[in-house]
Design goal:
About 60% of the residues lie in helices and about 15% in strands. It is of the alpha+beta class. The chain starts with a helix and ends with a helix.
Length: about 160
Amino acid sequence: MNRQSNVSIKVRRGFMLGIVITILFFLMGLTHVGEAFALEYRVYGYVIYRSGEVVHVPYLPLYLYMWRVSSLLFLAWVIAYIAYIIKPSIVIDSSGIIYGIFYVITHYIYLFTIGANVVMYPLMYVLFTIGKPLIYLDWGQVVALITIWRAYVLYRLARGQ
């Protein structure tokens, strides 16, 4: 077996690992585990933003589900690259690419379904809810840039360059 096919096999294993764990995270997003750590119980349900006001709803809004999933994916992405720094592995690197791709997707679904106005800038965004605008570092863009770089490195490695 040559080096290129060995790399390709490891990349496929990492992609499969990443996809399986991502599917588990989508299922875990349906659980209410996070509410066990809340300071107070959600008696009133959840809130959404409509036309500049807060509306209480009795169901789990899509943005909160996406926030749960994207938080899990971000954590997996960070852990994958900490593990990769400690002991470089093609499997870990390629699973980190999957976590990064799905994190970016769920992060932006979360942002654009929250109901508040969002203004995007390079590496940051401004969220207009109630009161003053909130400025955030856009981890979606940061993760996207690093994920593209890691995918390029793996592509070159698989091609033997």
